Amino acid sequence: MVVVADKSARDETIEKIAKQLGVRAERGRRFAELTSLRVGGAIDWLTSPNSEEQAAALVGAFERNDVAWRPLGSGSNVLADDGEHHYVIVSLKDLKAAPVFAGQKVSVSAGYSLPRLCIDAARQGLSGIEGLNGIPGTVGGALWMNAGAYGHEIGTVTETVRVARAGNVVEIPGTEVQWNYRHTSFKEGELLLGATSADAAMVLGWSLSNRSPGPNVRAPTVTSRTKTSADTPRPSPRVTESRTNVRLLPLVMYASERS
């Protein structure tokens, strides 16, 4: 990605593009204000599109004008240099509309919290991503690096992905994406914007507050601890818990960025 040589001309170009597209553009921000680690130096520009189409048009205009840009989600686990960053940050934090559940599908924006999505899905009686609940960040960041935990991976539950290409939103099959361990085939300069799932992919019947154990499932129990003589060590409490197998569900991911 080429950086416009004349900084003043570049700044005028950025300001003009943002104004034409109705995108909020700010100067004087620092990475330390935008990341969970609270470190990082000054950023030339911070832009904040509020829709997938707006984000695609924004990066398309930047690329046509040789303006360097980088995506940023919630800033989880991002370690930025304390020096100056001479490029535009495209923040996706405003792409966080509430997930839309329709039957056995769910669509969610790139800036939406991944842990919150797990809770929302469970409240809808849908299963398949609860293992991702402890992963910080946004859906977009999770897609970018194929986040996973406890046998669940976001790539496994994503069927098609929407990306920004030449200023437009383009949908590609998930089978064309290489979902590796904490890595994907998405390339630098590619902005992820969405995805689609199959109707039959969701698993119904799961709820955080209303589920009954099967016939072979024991409820969690804790053994009591009794006081013994001074010469006898006290037994440690033991926790017995059972686990059930849960199938994965393809989700509709309006995704986009590394977080």
Word description of this protein:
By secondary structure, this protein is of the alpha+beta class. The chain folds into 2 domains: 7-91, Uridine Diphospho-n-acetylenolpyruvylglucosamine Reductase, domain 2; 95-259, Uridine Diphospho-n-acetylenolpyruvylglucosamine Reductase, domain 3 (2-Layer Sandwich), CATH 3.30.465. The protein has 4 helices and 19 strands. Strands 1, 2, 3, 4 and 5 form a 5-stranded mixed sheet that branches. A 3-stranded mixed sheet has the order 6-7-19. The longest helix is centred in the first third of the chain and has 15 residues, at 7-21. The radius of gyration is 23 Å and the shape is globular. The two termini are 21 Å apart. Mean pLDDT is 77; it is low at 205-259.
